[in-house]
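Entry 14. Ran structure prediction on the chain below.
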Amino acid sequence: MKVIAKYPFCIFLLSLFSLFGILQCEKAQKPIENDLISVKKNIFETNRIFLSEINELESLVAKDSEEKILQQKFDALRITYKKMEWAVEYFLPTTARFINGPALPEIEMEEHTVLEPEGLQVIEEMMYPYDAENKDELLRILKKLTNKSNTVKANFAVISVSRDQVFDAVRQQVFRISSLGIAGFDTPVSGNFLREMPFALESVKSALKMIHHENSDGNSLQKISQQIDAAILELKKNPDKNSFDYIGFIPEYLNKISEALLEFKKEENIPDVEVTTALKKNASSFYAKNVFDVDAFVPGKEYAMSDEKVQLGKQLFNDKILSNNNTRSCASCHDAKKAFTDGEAKSMSLENVALARNTPSLNYSSLQHGQFWDMRKDDLEGQSSDVITNKEEMHGDMQTIIAKINKNSRYRQFFTKIFKSKNVESWQLQNVLASYIRSLATFNSDFDAYMRGDQNALSEDQKKGFNLFMGKAQCAICHFLPIFNGTVPPNYSKTEQEVLGIATDGSNKKADSDPGRGKFHQTVEFLQRSFKTPTLRNIAKTAPYMHNGGYKTLEEVMKFYNEGGGKGLGLAVENQTLSDSKLNLTDKEMKQIISFLNSLTDR
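Output, structure tokens:
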């Protein structure tokens, strides 16, 4: 106290500097607070319009208005949702699922219950075309949509919204547009997605402007705004899904927008949201190298992948020590030259007897929730133990196998180095095998090279095939870019299954009777004969096809889809989730799609 009292002028200066610092801090914080208030106001206002449009559509339906008028009002309603989709999907994912999720039942696996579908996609099915006999049901679904809009209002009134979360939400929206949006995932009937995308992109630009700091130079915001404007202009030139140039638009516009987002983040000094996600925080686009974090799919932190685990797992994968009688390894049925399949229609037992299903590829199986065709195991750790202990496959006993490994001084030394434990444990064996399989997602095909800028990586037929894949054939509605499997982007928290109405073979005369996931959920009709949607990457190496191996060639597979699946072919498949409408692809177009699929083979 005596020292401070000795220098009263210093006290004055310190006080002045402190006051100046506080004022500067307030000056820096106020714009941020105002920005976040603006964000919430924007969501409230958009949701208010959304609710008003629901009421207007409800009134028009009640008055028995003409189909064209109803469709126009519905299309406007969807566009309004697209303006706030980035926020609702991020902050209220469950609500978003019931506003704009697939027109399929939602399954609560633990309770074995089915929640009926609702929301915009259900309404779309009733609108295109509109049947007045469905009037009461449509009004009921619209009332439920009103409830969801009120849920959005109530939740955004109380939740906190931070600047880093807004950026993260916007970034996810760009990736959503680059996968689900560009495929028409949520407009499978009307096919209006190219007309809706400009509004979704415009909302990205608006949100970024709201969190832009006045003290940053704004170069990145200007750049991304220009790129979005250019993308919107291109979309408006040709909104026809069957003739749109997807193969040109994605790398030239969408990838550049996602790349510019990282520049914006750096310039604006926005920190990462500290949550492990499938898409890495530094991913510049879907097609950048090492874009996916496989650790987002592991059971826990101790299961995280490492190079040491991968190398040990590879050795054990090829070692017959894992089978009961030391006659079979994992590689016996998963040949690396065949994209880790075996080339047989059905897996073969230890006694060389055909089993029930085809051997699935292990490539990219790490990027999904649900292993095996019937998804009976949640992760690769569970998958490996299931195979080892299956009496028809490897007929091993985990305790016996672990005992053999513990007696092997070389293996034991590797395990000790990795896990710091005295003895090898079952979960550790499962983890190293799973780690090796997780390393098989390499993303180094010709298609990836093209998306990264190599204009010569694809032939003209392959480019046309991709455009057909995205548009007329509607393949990407189920096989999502860029993994081409059923794990739903951009959150990758769920892997979908489908009921295709598969026949016993390519003649398509008799329906296959395998219950698939239905075996484990016998009271859930929706899951009967349903199977996971596998990746199409490396599909040129994995013949024969489908869960039963009944389709020998990709030509047979394409003909099956072209006819509308089993139901379209006249088979009794009441719960088929695949559209039974014919695609009307010509022989040449099917060959072009197959040519594109060949470009998905890893080099």
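Residues 451-598 form a domain with the Cytochrome Bc1 Complex; Chain D, domain 2 fold (CATH 1.10.760.10). Will compare against last week's run tomorrow.
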